[in-house]
Amino acid sequence: MGIYDLRSYLETLEQNQRLLHIRKDVDLDYELANLAATVARRLGNAIFFEKIKRDSPPSQQGQLYPWGVFTNALVNPSLAALALECSVEDLSARMGRALDPAQGIAPRVTEQAPPWQANVLTGEQINLYDLPIPIHGQYDGGAFITGGVTVSRDPVSGRGNLSYNRMQVLDRRTFGFNVNEWRHVMQFYKHQQAQNQPLPIAVAIGLDPAIMIAAAARYEGDELAIAGALRGEGVLVTKGVTVDLLIPYHAEIVIEGYLPPHKRHPEGPLAEFHGYYGEIWDSPVFEVTAVCFRNRPIYQTIVPGWDEHIYIGNVLPREPLLLRFVRHVSPNVRALHIPPYGNGFLAVIQLEKSNPGEPKNVALAAFTAHVNIAKVIVVDPDVNIYDPADLHWALTNRVDWGRDVVRIQGAQGHEMDPTANERGVHTKVIIDATYKPEIRAYGQRVAYPVVDLNLYL
Ligand SMILES: Cc1cc2nc3c(=O)[nH]c(=O)nc-3n(C[C@H](O)[C@H](O)[C@H](O)COP(=O)(O)O)c2cc1C
Ligand SMILES: [Mn+2]
Questions:
Q1: Nearest C-alpha to atom 18 of ligand 1 is from which residue?
Q2: For position 61, what pLDDT does the model report?
């Protein structure tokens, strides 16, 4: 049996020496995220925190549960490849197939009580301050669940839905619940509002990474079908304790409740995908009706505004889309990457060009695939598109900045792109960083094959 839940993924990470165990006491506030962010960029490994603590307890004190905390599940392509049991080269093709609604595999319902119903807290027993919810960034407004997957249901069609919604702890039984205007969850919430009815939701934490990947996709249908397609069989789901929703059977923790139709509360700020702290939002609230967990559960988080957040939200679901567009223009495209450090605004294309004009054409195709793409760099097959230093080598040694750059002024980007104006209008840029032998011929480039250090250290 392959990966089907968080624990089987942890075993895979362990076997591949990609799970870093931190045995020292780590503070949930700031220290945990600082460590995770450093490991994300220096080692690229997942982390299991065995002992977490909280030095400055929040006002409504809880008994912090002695639970392990897991993060960096999907922090880069090599971990995503482990999670999806394929090679880095095959990631985009696998994602592309799974995102095709025709390939979706519906969840399987079981009546059996799930492991997460081993412990069920309701009413006065609920105290969100007991949960190991970190304060991540220095300027975050408080403790946020960032790695929980929201399970909801379309009140009109009855279909299921997965999404990510940051949740700030407001009091013992209430979260602030962030949801943008154009999300499915907002559509459901507004429908309920018009009937003066609450929207029931459940938050599942500690999941099979295939479900984590599926939840970030914009998809017409139940995102669980994407996870089913990734695993080749339907995800096992089961009824909630206090909500009539189908929730992943193999979750570590499930928080159930509802969004009341007319109550709002400020939440935020939080480190956002675009690389800056955002605004305080006046958001719906999430009233909790049950907190359920496995025995010895594992809490999972995503460091906001950092690599895993961007990798799940802006890279994995978009690379297949861009690849389809650029391959339509040229079969010579070898690979494509949206590097997390570019916050989803940069795409790097590896091209075995057969014509000096080809790099510009594939770059234009990448812009048309997604509005967020603002910079495209085209390189040759000898440049490692996953290595920022190698990319910089190409920018330094293969670009004549007076000749190889194309600007597209007044183009539309994302409204939150820090280079754009308030309407999202900015200049898009193409950089042709391929070698131009017709201008000047060089000999062989110096390069040593890259070794995966995790196999040696
Ligand atoms: C880690 C992470 C956190 C996110 N947080 C939020 C959020 O707080 N609010 C929001 O509206 N979207 C957020 N998103 C984006 C949505 O979850 C995502 O676009 C999803 O497709 C929305 O699904 P829906 O249209 O089915 O509601 C986040 C994405 C990721 C990967
Ligand atoms: Mn959806």
A1: 216
A2: 66
Q: CA 156 to CA 187: how far, in whole Å?
A: 10
Which token pair is 150?
């929201």
- C-alpha of residue 164 to centroid of ligand 2, in Å: 10
Q: What is the number of the ligand 1 atom nearest to the C-alpha of 312?
A: 31
Cβ density class 352-376: b for 16+ within 10 Å, e for less: ebeeeebbebbbbbbbebbebbbbb
Instruction: Report residues of the chain scoring pLDDT below 50.
Output: none
How many Å apart are CA 154 and CA 165, to the nearest integer? Answer: 16
State the ligand closest to the CA atom of 222.
2
Residues with CB under 6 A from ligand 1: 146, 161, 163-166, 178-180, 183-185, 216-218, 302, 309, 312-313
Which residues pair with residue 164 across a beta bridge? 149
The residue whose CA is least distant from atom 22 of ligand 1 is: 163
- Cα–Cα distances (Å) from 108 to 31, 112, 220, 244, 246, in that order, read 40, 12, 19, 16, 10
CA of 82 to the centre of ligand 1 (A): 24
Report CA(246)–ligand 2 centroid distance (Å).
15
DSSP symbol at 271: B
The whole model's pTM is what? 0.96
Helices (H) and strands (E) in the chain, counts: 11, 22
d(CA 250, CA 149): 13
What three-state secondary structure class fits 86? coil
State residue 57's pLDDT score.
65
Q: How far is the CA of 198 from the centre of ligand 2 (A)?
A: 19
Domains and CATH numbers, the chain: 76-295 (2.30.110.10), 318-455 (3.40.1670.10)
Secondary structure of residue 413 in the 3-state scheme? coil
